[in-house]
Amino acid sequence: MRDKMSLLGGALLLAIVIASMSLFTVDQRQYAVVFQLGEVKEVIDEPGLKFKLPLIQNVRFFERRILTLDTPDPERFITSEKMNLLVDHFVKWRIIDPRLYYESVAGDEARARTRLTQTVNAGLREEFGRRTMHEVVSGAREAIMDSMREKADRDARRIGVQIVDVRLKRVELLPEVSESVYRRMEAERKRVANELRSEGAAAAEKIRADADRQREIIIAEAYRAAQEAKGEGDAKAIAIYADAFGRNADFYSFYRSLEAYRASFAGKDDMLVVDPSSDFFKFMKDSGGARN
Fold first, then answer.
1. For residues 79 and 85, is the Cβ–Cβ distance under 8 A?
2. Contact present, 148 and 120 (Cβ < 8 Å)
3. For each of the chain's 292 residues, which pLDDT tens digit applies?
4. Which of 164, 166, 167, 150 minimizes the C-alpha distance to 94?
5. Crossing angle of helices 109-129 and 98-105, rounded to 10°
6. CA atoms in the 13 A half-sphere facing the CB of 235
7. Which CATH superfamily includes the segment(s) 67-173?
8. Which of 165, 47, 28, 40 is nearest to 101 (CA)?
9. Sign of the C-alpha dihedral, residues 208, 214, 220, 226?
């Protein structure tokens, strides 16, 4: 009885060992590649509990999530105008064909990263070599990244990898040339600013000259209108005086004499030497004679 129990226990233990060697779990974030005697037998991309032949087959797991290839240090690239630039970039990639990935780089992520780094760097050198510094820094960055993604993806698919994105994090000049470039840019900005100031000053002078001209025209027209109004008023006044005084010539003569007297004796110290028989005193003489 004891022997049977030992035999049963051994069989159970053997079954457990065989089951542990035959069953494996595939995570949803991984690919499972089943090898049989060193050759790829099956690629499993569905998660769950799977079965393999013990001792004959073995399993390797590969990442199916998006991975990042980030350069530790900026790379130096040369533009079409022979300007050296420091470029910091990163690449997003993932495995899409585990079988081809294993056959191309033996499933070694380090080898795959090396291959992708070489591909991306070669493409960037080509792109930078066809463009000026201004295009690289500001104008054509999106175009460079799109072109690089397409070129790198075509090469990466040969090893079972897809390039999801290529991004330029930083593009800058070398420290030894940055200062001279900044000085040149500053001088250019100052030149443009001076031109704008000159144009503004010329426009201001033109506006002031036009304003002065319009002011003189307005003043002249106003003076002319005032003189015309004054002349019309004087003419009307003269006509009114002439009509009023023309109706009684003696009264008009008397009124004019009174005005002359008032103007002649305006002050207490005024002195006038005139012949008493002068017509200037005729109304005074007439007045005195009338009283006598």
1. yes
2. yes
3. 666 666 666 667 666 667 667 888 899 999 999 999 888 899 998 998 888 888 888 999 999 999 999 888 888 888 888 888 888 889 999 999 999 999 999 889 999 999 999 999 998 888 888 888 777 777 677 888 888 899 999 999 999 999 999 988 888 777 766 667 677 788 888 999 999 999 999 999 999 999 999 999 999 999 999 999 999 998 888 888 777 777 777 777 777 777 776 776 666 666 666 666 666 666 666 554 444 3
4. 164
5. 90
6. 6
7. Band 7 domain (3.30.479.30)
8. 40
9. negative
Pair of tokens at residue 273: 């030497």
Q: Are 98 and 31 in contact (CB under 8 A)?
A: yes
Amino acid at 55: L
Distance between CA atoms of 287 and 292, rounded to whole angstroms? 9
> Rounded to two decimals, what is the model's pTM?
0.55
User: What pLDDT is stored for residue 86 in this prediction?
Assistant: 85
As a whole number of angstroms, the distance between CA 34 and CA 53 comes to: 10
Radius of gyration from C-alpha coordinates of the chain? 56
Please answer whether residues 52 and 59 qualify as being in contact, where contact means their C-beta atoms are separated by less than 8 angstroms. yes
